Amino acid sequence: MRRTKSSLHGALIGLAREKPYSAIAVKEILNRANVGRSTFYTHFRDKDDLLESGIHEVLQSARDGARSLSAVERLLSFSLPLLTHIDEHRHAAGPQMKREGRLVMHARLGDALRQLIADDLAGLVPKSTQQTAVDLVAQHVASTFVLVLNWWVDSSPMLTPDAVDEQFRGLIAPSLGGLVTQSP
Known about the structure:
CATH topology: Tetracycline Repressor, domain 2
CATH class: Mainly Alpha
C-alpha cells in the first residue's frame, strides 16, 4: 500500500504542476498513478484527503528524529525537513507548480501544522495555561511558517532551506520562549 500511496501522491503533485489544483479530477490522478478507483476510495475520500495524507506523512517523517530535542526544538522540528522536501520538489525536472496549486497545498499544510502544533503544545505548556493560548500560539506558528514559505517561493528562491528555516525560527522563537518549558 505504501507504494500505491506514493504513486498517488506523486500523481497529484505532477498534475498540480500542469494545471490548477481545482481542475484536477480524481480520474486523472488514478490514470497517472495507474491505480484503480476502488483502491483509491478504500483509502481516501477525495483528492483533498489524498493531499492531506501526503502532508501528514511528510510531517511525520520530519518529526520522527526529534524525540531527544528540547521542547521548543521538538515543536519546530518540522521546519527544516519540510523546507528541504519542498526545495527538492521545486528543483525537480518539469514545470513548476502553478501558484493556485501551491496556495491550496500551503493552506492545507497550515491546517495540518496548526493541529500538530496544538497537540504538541497541549502536552508542553503548564496546566494553568488556557486552551485559548495554546490554540492562538499554534495558529501563530503555523501561519507564520506558511507566510515564510510563500515569501520564499514567491520572492526569494535563491535562499537555501537552512536560511529560510533560520528566518522562520527568528520570527517564532520569541513567542514560544515564555509559553513552553525548555525541558527535554
